[in-house]
Design brief:
Helices cover about 35% and strands about 20% of the residues. The protein has a five-stranded mixed β-sheet. A four-stranded mixed β-sheet has the order 5-7-2-6. A four-stranded antiparallel β-sheet has the order 12-15-13-14, covered by helices on one side. The termini are far apart. The protein contains 13 helices and 15 strands.
Length: about 375
């Protein structure tokens, strides 16, 4: 007899901020925001640190994440840093450290796999687990997973366990931080239907707004909505999906292996940049992005043929260009030349706030030489 599905969604609690609190435990209990690359803490002779505050910030960056104390003041990820400074001027401002976050991500995922090998990697701070074949009771099993994560990293996580991925994702948010939430299909009317529809993963801001104009504000409203109303306002496939998710229906499996489709690196600037006036600084940034993409390819054992760049202008419009190479590569200099050709095809008269480099059409590499350092050239000199 096939075991009933028991799917878990594990989400690390305020992951980036929590990693920083391991490094600076004196900040525990304080509002802390992570964003940008500047404003490094200064170590004092007595071993203490002097931290920048949000009031010190100038620029056009955005918040990467924040502690729960900062969130209580209205500061959330993707918020403009200047806006956040008005809400919480005394909050501590720390730079991002993606190398550290990736390190702790590997640690917590390895710890989970010692208990449950059926893991679907969904990003740096979240995973799905298929617990269907485990014989342990649900809550003790979830606690064992949480304990393993804490022992390996010193960090807390929240776990939602339900009959499918849709419900597990929703309930992992219900008891944050450091929570365990178990939900069955019988719990849907009492616990899922009162939630706003935006709590369903896959209902974005546009769909949320459109549903609101139809008088559909909660998941329960969606469950009770007339099928013809949904069909008249959404595509047939999306309307059918909305009806299913409102009733907690989701048959997606936990996918334990997926092929990497692309590798990219990008950076959001502390201030708006201009191709001519900030030529030297932009050239250095561009070189580093190409170098790190090449290093990522070699580390993961891939080569790629499609090289592209991305710019986000100050009005948040995004411009992308890509070219296809005659042969796949993981060479930094080749990637830089190709990305440079892409930049030649993008209007660079106005200021921009983000620059990214991407390589796709990936295939497994054979024996590769070590990545050579990019030789810096004045890429933006013609603009």
């Amino acid at each position: 007899m096939t075991a009933a599905r028991r799917i878990a969604h594990l989400d690390m609690d305020a992951f980036y901020a929590s990693v920083e609190l391991l490094r600076y435990p004196e900040l525990r209990g304080q509002p802390v925001v992570i964003g940008g690359m500047s404003y490094q803490p200064q170590r004092n002779p007595d071993g203490t640190h002097t931290f920048a505050r949000l009031r010190d910030y100038t620029g056009r960056g955005v918040i990467t994440t924040s502690t729960y104390e900062a969130r209580a003041l209205g500061v959330f990820s993707a918020m403009g840093t200047m806006k956040a400074a008005k809400l919480a001027p005394d909050a501590v401002l720390l730079p991002v450290d993606f190398d550290a976050y990736r390190h702790y991500s590997r640690l917590f995922k390895a710890a989970v796999r010692t208990i449950c090998p059926l893991v679907e990697d969904r990003g740096i701070d979240e995973i799905y687990l298929d617990l269907s074949e485990h014989t342990e009771d649900t809550r003790p099993l979830a606690q064992a997973i949480k304990d393993a994560v804490r022992e390996a990293t010193g960090l807390s996580c929240s776990i939602g366990i339900a009959p499918n991925k849709l419900l597990a994702k929703i309930c992992s948010e219900m008891d944050k931080p450091d929570g365990i939430t178990v939900l069955g299909m019988d719990d849907i009317p009492g616990r899922i239907w009162p939630l706003p529809v935006r709590k369903v993963n896959g209902i974005g801001p546009k769909a949320d707004q459109k549903l609101a104009t139809l008088g559909i504000l909660t998941v329960g409203d969606l469950a009770a909505a007339d099928a013809d109303l949904l069909q008249d306002n959404f595509s047939p496939s999306y309307a059918a999906w909305l009806r299913d998710v409102a009733h907690g229906i989701d048959d997606r499996p936990v996918v334990t292996y997926s092929e990497t489709k692309s590798i990219s690196r990008e950076t959001t600037f502390e201030r708006d940049m201009h191709a001519r006036r900030d030529r030297a600084e932009l050239t250095g940034i561009f070189d580093r992005l190409c170098q790190r993409v090449a290093e990522d390819l070699v580390r993961k054992g891939y080569v790629g043929r499609s090289v592209g760049v991305k710019l986000r202008y100050t009005d948040f419009k995004i411009m992308t260009r890509a070219i296809t190479l005659p042969e796949p590569t993981a060479d930094a200099a080749t990637i830089r030349r190709a990305a440079g050709e892409c930049l030649q095809r993008i209007p660079l008269e106005q200021r921009f706030r983000l620059l990214g480099v991407r390589i796709g059409s990936l295939s497994k590499a054979g024996a590769t030489e070590p990545v050579k350092q990019v030789q810096q050239k004045e890429l933006f000199s013609d603009f």
